[in-house]
């Protein structure tokens, strides 16, 4: 899952990015309104963390432009502005949640995870496909009650497939959500990871649609 962090304080942006990366997100970062607007409009992102007090274009205007362009990814506003009028302006522009600075980093991670799963249509943090479970709060996966030993990338891949279980997900879509824009997006490497994941969760759980992509079965395979 890819998150765009738009924050002009570079140290804070780095801290937010590190915390989200630790939680299994892929991060894109911008430090002013123009760059943030551009990346939100041109990169495939699952959510954004947006500061209001940005140089160039402020956060409310960035958000208005995203929504005006039809971009519907969830947006979490981070700001030191605590006036009610600022909150109203953020929500009217299309924000989904609002956190005041200073804040606890784990709260930001939790709120963002909640926005992402709700946007994908999941009401609870535990994703399930028969005996396969993935807890988005802890990042842990289990199969028939037994913990699975997954690499960080395997966990990211499984989480994305489970968020969109039952739907065919193309290799291009997976690469756009798994890698940042500067990474080498090698489909052959993706095939290798899919193969490793199949061996851990059951070969038949991930269906390959030739020329289309992959589909995680919503129940236990027969």
TrEMBL record:
One of its GO terms (biological process) is regulation of DNA-templated transcription. The keyword DNA-binding applies. GO terms for cellular component: cytosol; protein-DNA complex. Residues 124-218 form the OmpR/PhoB-type domain. Signal peptide: none annotated. Keywords: DNA-binding, Phosphoprotein, Transcription, Transcription regulation, Two-component regulatory system. The modification 4-aspartylphosphate is found at residue 51. Residues 124-218 bind DNA. SMART domains: REC (SM00448), Trans_reg_C (SM00862). PANTHER family: REGULATOR OF RPOS (PTHR48111), RESPONSE REGULATOR PROTEIN CARR (PTHR48111:SF37). One of its GO terms (molecular function) is phosphorelay response regulator activity. Residues 2-116 form the Response regulatory domain. This is Two-component system OmpR family response regulator.
